[in-house]
TrEMBL record:
It comes from the Bacteria. InterPro entries: FAD-dep_OxRdtase, FAD/NAD-bd_sf. Residues 4-354 form the FAD dependent oxidoreductase domain. Keywords: Oxidoreductase. This is FAD-dependent oxidoreductase. It comes from Streptomyces luomodiensis. It holds the Pfam family DAO.
Length: 380
């Protein structure tokens, strides 16, 4: 039986541990904090593929959406799976881009429709749409998209992985501090409580911390550094409520992107609202209130709402924007999975990675994402 150590229990590591354990691998899942409480907790968690290119990457994301539908049937999907569709509003400056996205998506067999204001109001009756004619706005509807509630999902993935025989260690017992190699090959990991955990394969699912963990095995994973001021890796999000009535869909508009988060809360973010790891607390609070003001323009149901939580969180972003998935040729026994579309992709990657590991094969769908594409990648 293959002994797999999975490092990191965000959505990517939890989905993989569940799948591997279901296929009878011997799994140890190691998490330095609590499962699902890092980037995955704060994500917009929008399931999407429409705007993703090239075609192979679009297909991987569309497969990702279907993989969640499959998983939902056996894992209490009512508590976390929301295939509610996505309504997008583009202003005059982005009209052509949205029209092109819809045309390309349709050509690729993906459900996408340009809609008028009346149709959009039928799709999401809680929204007060701006005057589309006078502002030359463009509206599009992607009915197969949606979102996930990642906290109950990760909790249930980890619980099922345990039922399937996985061992789950958290806190200091789960914090990986070293990766052991013998003659170049990974043989074990060490944790902060002094344990040595032997492994045939160590799978790094450490999200934004991937570079640090891979460096323990002497490997450089090129990722966007979140620390310099103005880095594109950090994102700002806020949660507000109560909302009555609550919207149902994912909404992308020029001023704010949002989705429901539980029965009376709405998750907000905006592409033009940048914050980084140095943004002062007072400015973050102002940003959260600006987001709420923008959302109120759109959703009258937020008239009594207050800011409940806000946060700068960090996207795990490989340097060229594409996932890194696969065995590291220079370090046998080390496998890396990191992507900045981790919510959309995690269930499909869990399926594909499990096959690669258990059948000792290389799947063509994953070939574009090998770490060896970075010419600068070499053992340290
Ligand atoms: C603002 C924002 C919006 C986003 N919107 C979307 C979206 O709409 N759709 C989408 O698909 N994606 C979106 N993403 C990206 C998506 O959220 C991430 O790709 C995904 O959550 C990454 O999951 P993960 O499991 O790789 O990482 P994480 O959830 O960060 O989990 C990694 C885990 O590894 C653990 N770890 C790290 N180092 C160690 C160690 N040494 N030992 C043990 N454990 C360790 C951490 O504690 C953590 O729990 C968004 C991200 C952000 C920030």
């Amino acid at each position: 039986m293959l002994r797999c150590v999975v490092i990191g229990s965000g959505i990517v590591g939890a989905a993989l541990a569940d799948r591997l354990a279901g296929e009878k691998a011997e799994v140890v899942l190691l998490e330095q904090g609590r499962p699902g409480q890092a980037t995955s907790r704060w994500s917009l968690a929008w399931l999407n593929a429409a705007a993703k290119t090239p075609h192979a990457y679009h297909r991987l994301n569309a497969d990702g959406m279907r993989a969640w539908a499959r998983l939902a049937t056996g894992l209490n999907g009512a508590t976390w799976y929301r295939p509610v569709g996505n309504l997008r509003v583009a202003d005059a400056g982005r009209r052509e881009q949205l029209e092109a996205t819809v045309a390309r998506a349709r050509a690729w067999g993906y459900a996408a429709h340009l809609v008028d204001r009346e149709e959009a109001a039928r799709i999401e009756p809680t929204v007060r749409l701006p005057d589309t004619a006078s502002r030359n706005l463009c509206l599009a509807w992607f009915p197969q998209e949606g979102y996930l509630l990642t906290e109950p999902l990760v909790e249930q993935l980890v619980a099922r992985a345990r039922q399937r025989g996985a061992s789950v260690r958290t806190g200091e017992a789960g914090r990986v501090t070293g990766i052991e190699r013998v003659a170049g090959r990974v043989t074990a990991v060490r944790t902060a409580d002094g344990e040595r955990i032997p492994a045939d394969t160590v799978v790094c699912c450490a999200g934004r911390w991937t570079s640090e963990v891979a460096a323990m095995a002497g490997i450089r994973v090129p990722m966007v550094d979140p620390t310099p001021p103005g880095s594109t890796a950090p994102g700002f999000v806020a949660r507000v409520g109560p909302v009555e009535p609550s919207p149902t869909r994912v909404l992308h508009t020029p001023g704010v992107n949002l989705r429901p988060h539980g029965p009376r809360t709405v998750h907000l973010e905006a592409g033009d609202m940048t914050a980084d790891l140095h943004t002062p607390e007072t400015h973050l609070r102002d940003l959260a209130h600006t987001l709420l003001d923008r959302a109120r323009q759109l959703l009258p149901g937020l008239s009594q709402a207050r800011v409940q939580e806000y946060r700068v969180c960090v996207r795990p972003m490989p340097a060229d924007g594409m996932p890194v998935v696969g065995t590291v040729e220079a370090v046998p026994g080390l496998y890396i999975v990191v992507t900045h579309s981790g919510v959309t992709l995690a269930a499909r990657l869990a399926e594909l990675v499990t096959r690669e590991l258990l059948e000792d094969i290389r799947l063509p769908q994953l070939e574009p994402y090998r770490i060896e594409r970075f010419t600068a990648t070499s053992p340290q």
